[in-house]
Specification:
By secondary structure, the chain is of the alpha/beta class. It is built from nine helices and 14 strands. It has a six-stranded mixed sheet, with helices on both faces. A hairpin with a 3-residue loop joins strand 12 and strand 13. The model has no long low-confidence stretch (mean pLDDT 90).
């Protein structure tokens, strides 16, 4: 069953179309990535999902029903623009938000302590929010999002302001929540995070859906046109080679995108004629490469 469906939704502001005929479906138990360049319409789409703004056209369905405010008791939302009350103590803040989401005070207090220990900020629960670093405030927002154990978790740029260690910790928790049956949507510019965690994605640009579906199937559609080559000697085999569409040369290691219709074996023969090849691997493109290719093609239209 789809936890959330957008059906041909559209939203415009003063003549600017932010989201244009967007349809997508997020299945129960998935981690779903909503991707796109800055200004693509991701945040507008998320706000329509949870009723902050209403679409000009189209429909939103949640848990198999037309969207209704009562559904939000089963949703956790971390917005892109953070909204903590700076002069309130962290523990009071979390308990207050838990109570707003239907928790008893005692249950909210217990859950806040549990998650604060897990996220290594329990020593700061008695401090005011304004005394916390940006990264710690982000952790507080994260806890507030999942405190009431929502069925559907929506996170807009959840890794913003976090160092790699804490980003990994948040990702570990998201994967654990999925194993426990929760459905997660997150919007991010971190393609590496999406590639490791997401079951499915939707890539939007200028408000329109460019790609939508299972991540593995999308990568397979682009074929194995990427070659990783490690070599000793000169890289003359890459110069003005019609087999090569693009390359990133790091010195004795190069990533190559083959031209359409090119045979990787021909490139291997050219390479061995000029250098000693220690690695030659044909691979699917990374999600970052797909992103750049799709968005770049849309820009050229």
């Amino acid at each position: 069953m789809a936890v959330l469906e957008l059906e041909h939704v559209r939203k415009a502001y003063d003549g600017h179309v932010a989201v244009d005929d967007l349809s997508l479906a997020i299945e129960d138990g998935q981690i779903f990535g909503l991707l796109g360049p800055n200004g693509a319409g991701k945040t507008t789409a998320i706000r329509m999902m949870i009723g902050i703004i209403m679409p000009d056209a189209g429909a939103v369905r949640m848990f198999g029903e037309p969207f209704a405010r009562r559904h939000l008791r089963s949703v956790g939302y971390l917005p892109e623009e953070r909204g903590l009350y700076r002069r309130i103590k962290v523990i009071d803040h979390l308990v207050f938000l838990g109570e707003l989401n239907g928790m008893s005070r005692s249950a909210a207090l217990a859950a806040a302590w549990q998650w604060a220990e897990r996220l290594e900020i329990d020593e700061w629960l008695g401090h005011k929010v304004e005394e916390l670093s940006k990264g710690m405030q982000q952790k507080v927002q994260f806890i507030a999002t999942i405190l009431h154990d929502p069925r559907f978790i929506i996170m807009d740029e959840p890794f913003a302001g976090l160092d790699p260690r804490n980003s990994a910790l948040l990702m570990e928790i998201l994967l654990e929540l999925r194993r426990n049956g929760r459905t997660i949507l997150f919007s991010t510019h971190r393609m590496d995070q999406v590639e490791r965690a997401c079951d499915a994605i939707c890539l939007i640009d200028r408000g329109r859906c460019m790609l939508h579906g299972e991540l593995g199937a999308i990568k397979a559609r682009f074929g194995k046109r990427n070659v990783q080559i490690a070599y000793e000697g000169g890289a003359g085999f890459l110069d003005h080679n019609p087999l090569v569409d693009a390359r990133c040369d790091y010195g004795n290691y190069v990533e190559v995108r083959l031209a359409a219709g090119a045979d990787a074996q021909e490139l291997l023969r050219a390479a061995t004629a000029c250098a000693r090849i220690t690695r030659f691997e044909l691979m699917e493109p990374s999600l970052e490469q797909i992103f750049l290719e799709v968005v770049g093609a849309n820009d050229r239209r």
